[in-house]
Amino acid sequence: MKGLSLATQAHFNWSNRIRARGTRVAGIAIILLGIGAALLPAGKSIHSDMIGALLIAAGLIELVAGSLRREARPFAMAAGGVTALAGLLFIVNPQTHFFPMVVPIIGWLLLRSLIIGAGSSECGGSVRTWTLLSALLDFLLAVLLTAGLSVATLIISLFGPTAELVASFAWILAASFVVNGLMLLEVASCAKEEAQA
Question: 58 and 33 in contact (C-beta within 8 Å)?
């Protein structure tokens, strides 16, 4: 019996180490995608297929990271799925104008904030704090985009999409990605601590 207990414990620790490493890699990858999104305004324009590719990549990474989690697994995977589907929408229905791209991003941010916020109830400690922070940031970004939508409509109708407006849109994606990546790094840190316990 004692040998069986030790073998089970060794497998449990190995599994937590793998979870911690995988989640850490996912967090770093999403932060790097956030940096890429922040650099989008450096180009002449932001095409919907570039936004779609960023969202699909982030969504797939988040799906994998969510599958590694012990807490809030269905919520984390659902948030990744919503992100990937939003990206697919941008690729399947490419828009050449800036304005139509904003509405799906608002919807994605709102839905994602609700999913992540609901998942926070299954988390504890610092992971819960980072999960709530991620949900709150996505919600606030959606509110900011919605509030700016009326101003943006006027600006776009009169002048077309300005560089500042396009940049703020890219930075909203970047902010969401970076906070989500930081949340995953905290999840990885907690999983590593469990592995060492």
Answer: yes
**Pairwise CA distance, residues 50 & 180, whole Å:** 20
10 Å Cβ neighbour count for 92? 10
Alpha carbon distance 44, 167 (integer Å): 11
- Residue 23 near residue 187 (C-beta atoms within 8 A): yes
Report the C-alpha gap between 27 and 166 in whole angstroms.
Answer: 26
Instruction: Look at residues 87, 189, 102 and name the one whose alpha carbon lies nearest to residue 141.
Output: 102
Up-side HSE of residue 45: CA atoms within 13 Å toward CB?
A: 10
Q: Name residues whose C-beta falls within 8 Å of residue 197's C-beta, 6 or more positions apart in sequence.
A: none
pLDDT tens figures, 7-19: 444 444 458 888 8
Considering the entire predicted model, what is its pTM? 0.82
The Cα–Cα gap between 4 and 21 comes to 26
